[in-house]
Write a structure and sequence with these properties.
With 326 residues, the protein is of the alpha/beta class. Helix content is 42%, strand content 18%. The chain has two domains: 29-142 and 265-296, Response regulator (Rossmann fold); 145-264 and 298-325, Rossmann fold. Strand 1, helix 2 and strand 2 (64-69) form a beta-alpha-beta unit. Helix 2 (42-54) crosses helix 11 and helix 3 (77-86) packs across helix 4 (98-107). The chain starts with a helix and ends with a strand.
Length: 326
């Protein structure tokens, strides 16, 4: 074989791997948008990754994830959503962050969005209906904002001596109105008056607690709110300092010292969101994927906090609790 022929064949052979690589599809990129911070959501992100992996997508192998964390500064979410759009991500996932879902939906009508929402996504304008989303978004709803009545009832049973009920809301949050509607409806049926306190900043959280009279038998019930979740250690510390029993939507507050929580199993919600994201990456359209509703709920009691607050937890509640922290 002549040298020129050999070099021609060698060059063609060397180019085959490059051509093959060029023909391989690019690894899809998920834009992960969240109102919280990475440190406090590490376990939840792991659950989201598990949902992806169960459906065949493993981060760093056949899918990449671009993370954007607002760390409690919800006003930064629109710019973060716009940045993900500029990067041409395959989809935007907003697991466990209603504010991020709303920001993503406002930013794009074409890039698929997979969310988990703390309240009815139809009311938020994320989808046309639960069964037929009809647009570029679908996901999971925990309906945690609509569980206020259940939390209020459990708090009454936990602290039967309670005389004054308070709640803290972030008035600018998408979750505030549905939570208060459900809470006030339940309070009326129980014959209870609930005083509403507002906080949009950390300083206002402190001020809200300071406004509560230093009297015995005050209690406090919370709804879902990402901003408060960021400041959960601060909230539980303030409540304990003022001897206020608290009822929350997720167990993380109880781990931090809150009295009790009742709400959806957030790890399950995150897994379901990851699984839905995988289905969209495989080609299914959000418009055709019905919004799923959480089916796993948990009731957690912190017995150590109960003892600090001189609360004797009724046996019937200990029996129905999914976990008792001692």
């Amino acid at each position: 074989m002549k040298r020129r022929q050999f070099m021609t064949l060698f060059g063609a052979a060397a180019a085959w791997p490059l051509a093959a690589r060029a023909q391989q599809p690019a690894v899809p990129v998920i834009g992960f948008l969240h109102a919280g911070s990475p440190e406090e959501n590490a376990k939840r992100v792991a659950a989201f990754r598990k949902g992806l992996a169960d459906a065949g997508f493993i981060e760093g192998q056949n899918v990449a994830i671009e993370y954007r964390w607002a760390s409690g500064k919800n006003e930064e979410l629109p710019a973060m959503a716009a940045d993900l759009i500029r990067r041409k991500v395959a989809l935007i996932a907003t697991p466990g962050s209603t504010a991020a879902a709303v920001a993503a939906k406002a930013a794009t009508a074409t890039i698929p969005i997979v969310f988990s929402s703390g309240t009815d996504p139809v009311d938020l304008g994320l989808v046309a209906s639960l069964s037929r989303p009809g647009g570029n978004a679908t996901g999971i709803t925990s309906l945690n904002a609509e569980l206020a009545a259940k939390r209020l009832g459990l708090l009454r049973d936990l602290v039967p001596r309670a005389a004054r009920y308070f709640t803290l809301v972030k008035p600018t949050s998408e979750l505030a109105a549905p939570f208060l509607k459900d809470l006030q409806g339940a309070a009326t049926s129980f014959g209870i008056h609930v005083t509403v306190l507002n906080a949009n900043t950390a300083a206002e959280i402190d001020a809200a607690f300071a406004s509560i009279p230093l009297e015995p038998d005050n209690v406090m019930v919370f709804g879902p709110e990402g901003f408060f979740y960021v400041h959960r250690a601060r909230i539980t510390k303030l409540a304990l300092r003022r001897a206020i029993p608290t009822m929350h939507d997720v167990r993380d507050y109880v781990d931090a010292g809150g009295l009790a929580s009742y709400g959806s199993d957030y790890f399950n919600v995150m897994e379901l969101t990851g699984n839905y994201a995988a289905r969209v990456l495989k080609g299914e359209k959000p418009a055709d994927l019905p919004v799923q509703q959480a089916t796993k709920f948990e009731f957690i009691i912190n017995l150590k906090t109960a003892k600090l607050l001189d609360i004797e937890v009724p046996q019937k509640l200990l029996l129905i609790a999914d976990e008792v922290i001692e």
